[in-house]
Amino acid sequence: MKLPIHKKSNIDLLAKCRLATWLTLALTLTACNESNNTMSNSESNDSQTEQVLPYQDTSLPMNQRVDDLVGRMSLAEKVAQMYNDAPAIERLDVPAYDYWNEALHGVARAGEATVFPQAIGMAAMWDRELLNEIATVISDEGRAKHHAFKERGLSYRYTGLTYWSPNINIFRDPRWGRGQETYGEDPYLTGELGVAFINGLQGDDDTYLKTAATAKHFAVHNGPEVSRHSDDYVVSDKDLFETYLPAFEKAVVEADVEAVMCAYNRVNGAPACGSDRLLKDILRGSYQFDGHVMSDCGAIADFYDPKAHNVTRSPAAAAAWAVKSGTDLNCGTGRLSSYANLTFAVQKGFIEESLIDQAVGRLMMTRFKLGMFDPDSSVPFADIPLEVVGTEEHLALTQKASERSLVLLKNNGVLPLQPGVKVAVIGPNADNQDVLLGNYNGLPVNPVTVLQGIKNYTGNAAVPYAPGSALIDDIYGHWQILDESVLFHRDESGELSPGVKVEYYAVAREAITDFSSLRVPARQTGSAIHSEVLNKLQMRNLRSPVSGKWLDDFAMVASGQLVPQESGSYRFDGPGEVTLNGEVVTGAVELKANESYDFKVSHRVVSNPVSNTAGGLRADWQLRWVNESQALQEQALAKAANADVVVMAVGISPRIEGEEMPVKLEGFNYGDRTSIALPAEQQALIKAVEKLGKPVVLVNFSGSAMALNWEQQNVDAIIQAFYPGEATGTALARILWGEVNPSGRLPVTFYKNLDGFAPLDDYAMANRTYRYFEGDVLYPFGYGLGYSAMQYSNLQAPESLASGEDLTLQVELSNLGEQAASQVTQVYVSMPDAPVDTPKLSLKGFTRTQIGAGEAQTVSLTLSADELVYINEQGQKVPYTGALDVYMGDGQPGYGKPEKVAHTRIDVQ
């Protein structure tokens, strides 16, 4: 790739040199002298000259090109490149770039994308191959979006190729709100799935990364959310290396993950982003990690924030500390921009500039690997068209993933449903799009709720439905987008017509004073640039309706008449300022049925110069409402009374569990949970419906384990849905009516209660997860039912094994049912002769097998010798010798029928 160098006068160049700051004087003078020499050599040539600098030469090794580029940067330029939103260096043709992007279960926050099940749901698939295929689709859509943005000169947050996924923290406690983002509670399952996902994101090209994956949050990070910026998690070496680190080791050693994000919390006294032991000794030392490390957003500011870790008072010292430990990138320019102090830190001798060079070199190496300094023609992924987003093939894949993620927990024979059965759909999550998606999500292309899926499957548009209750308190799952059924406008003839008129305006940016929120009211004085009639108050468009350009600012005012169909107390939800009859609506408002109200909603979509985001990048605006005064339970009982079967969609939602949320309710604490029971409103609804005497199929949506004790005893069937992606309704209907044989398995333990649990901020693993828990559980890790009975027999294994050898196992799997199945076979081991305490059981292998009705197959699995080790008190891996108990079958031993798990004992010498 060649860059043009234009002739300029020596006087202009020298003038620029004199204006350089003293910190960058030497570098700038060197650049000026080089430019002077170049210009003097070409004075006689009036045409533009071209010179290929080493970092632009694609024939050179990437590390040589990176070194050359970094060597040409001034200190100030290098420091600026150490932010997530790195600015352009125009003189070196380095484009602006924001590293912040998300792809947890689909390309997130960048408009429409195929939305797969939330990570915990993908873990419930227990399927490496399918997860790798999903990640490949995500990276296809991500590449397509990136190049579409690039073609338009856009480098906002969420437009890049550095994805801050996957989250491979261990979901050690069901109260943690962000557990939904993980692959569950087991280090082996998490590690295997993490490798599959990373490989799918990064691709298999020998030269270029397809996208750059990020393993997060390193390390020992599992809540509580409310105190994560100040907590110090004290862990033993045994727990650290036995539970918290194995998945990260696999991500680095086996998947060669490009980036690692360090956590907010301290670990044994040191901030995770300043821990020499974690970042130097383990990550870069033991694991030989050679990619870049970024801070979680604002984590460096926590070093000196008096309300956080407060381990140093100097921002410059904090920045130097983090870089010296190995944190290359500072995320969080919107909160105490810590790395801005690195220039001062170099001046004061807190840090050597060579370490700045090292950090910037790592960051630039990632960008070079992504092909950002090479012609698109050289990068094999640069021609993926935008049309791949949300294709039929991608939507079919997310439906397949949803089907495999749903876990059948109980079935007394009511499932599968018979054709023609009359079904009522009840519950706060029955028509709730939020629970399809989880958090860190994109905008679904074709979202199908439970209600819509059952309507589509049965062909009955009049399926009886009622929400039955709130999710909890005043948080509802049955918000509805305002549409033409209640919105009207006057057409050109003056007649009332369905829909609302929307006018779009240019935004005078100098009038905007508050960029901290995108909910800035639009009070326009100019004329509308464009107008249209919307049938519902929802827009999904990256393009500004004013300029036609992607992500351009604009304002909108929708106006017309609102005519409610039912009297009640209504609450609105969505960005913008709503007025009724000229009065601004600030809370619930009483409205009468069939009465007409002058309606207006105003909203601005503007970019934020502080965080370098664009409101338009979210590409989604909608206004919803809910009638809070309805008799929800009574309506539900009336709808269910005449049904043959009641499908109840209950649970919680990502609006009340998740990352550091402003939610403080009974059972919920700022994103985490203090109870694992269903909210009281929903328990009352389920019991009332059960009293009708109808068969009840309970579908629970949650990102975490729920104590469904009464429900297990009293309802007829239970399906755990987690947050199953945009094809949820379609997938669920196919399972309910038996077109698909359920095959999901739990990636977490479902406990009966929290008795015996240590506080959430206690990181000792005693009595946590299936590997250490001493009590009875409701549903064990690895559990799940299907419609076909399975039998395992004739387990083949050596009687003895030399320590350090791989272990190969074979078992006969028989499908005794009348329906083909996709069966998950699991292998657990226990080490009773270990000289230290070891887990009661540990998962060490799993596979999926497609098996026809009445068929038998031999299933083979090989356990790596690296897995047949125990961790001593010093955190070291020690090859195990002694009796090794091996269990192979449909889950853990001790649950269900004996024929579902085969056992053998091997003498390891």
UniProtKB/TrEMBL annotation:
Could you tell me the keywords of this UniProt record?
Hydrolase, Signal
Domain (Fibronectin type III-like) ranges: 823-892
Task: State whether keyword Signal applies.
Answer: yes
Q: Does the keyword Lipid metabolism apply?
A: no
- Which Pfam families does this one have? Fn3-like, Glyco_hydro_3, Glyco_hydro_3_C
Molecular function terms from GO: hydrolase activity
UniProt record similarity statement: Belongs to the glycosyl hydrolase 3 family.
Protein's UniProt name: Glycoside hydrolase family 3 C-terminal domain-containing protein
Organism expressing this protein natively: Alteromonas oceani
Q: What is the lineage of its organism?
A: Bacteria, Pseudomonadati, Pseudomonadota, Gammaproteobacteria, Alteromonadales
